[in-house]
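Final report, section 2: Outcomes. Of the targets proposed, Ribulose-phosphate 3-epimerase is the one most frequently requested by collaborating groups, and we therefore present its record in full.
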Amino acid sequence: MAHPLIAPSILSADFARLGEEIAAVATPGPTRADWVHVDVMDAHFVPNLTLGLPVVQSLLKSTDVPVDCHLMIDDPDRWAIGYAEAGAYNVTVHVEAAKDPVKLAKDLRAAGAKAGLSIKPGTPLEAHLDTLKHYDTLLVMSVEPGFGGQSFIPDVLEKVRTARRLVDTGHLKLIVEIDGGINADTIEQAAEAGVDCFVAGSAVYGADDPGRAVAALREQAAR
Ligand code: DX5
Ligand code: ZN
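The predicted structure is given below as tokens.
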């Protein structure tokens, strides 16, 4: 992968200092994140609760790094648009939660965001290929959504390979993103399978120097 994108997930950051934590990966140069990944959880779609639109609105005002919102929520058809209107760069909804994902993608794009579709580890890709024609990013979950610091599930790489093939043959136009358990031990296999954008929470914010972790992961993915 020539230009791998690294998206630190602030789920593993210090929530009392989110602005500073994002600033730690925002200095121009190799330690800068390509996107900042923000995990929105509602304690319904996943058994955890994080943050919502007001916090994202404030973060958007505090950084120029593109913000990648991963909505692990019920009824994204109703709530996702607010994140696009607030200025998020990419807004990802779960295919397991969206009622009308094609309309949702159109609405997100019309509001100026990229539209992202996420699939849980147990959700097959094949059933959603037509829907994906309307999307800009595909977020393949490599852990069960809900918590940081879980172990990478290598089986999902088969979905990455399928998506990569469909993109490379011109059948789909997608940025392939992976989320969950990405670290120095797993990023190379994900890169080999064809991932474009790597979300990393604990591997970045669990490190002494988050910026250096971003640079190191990007170098590894580019090998
Ligand atoms: C999990 C979240 C991930 C999480 C990844 O549901 O979607 O973005 O922050 O954390 P790590 O990289 O620690 O697995
Ligand atoms: Zn995420």
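The CA atoms of residues 40 and 52 lie 6 Å apart.
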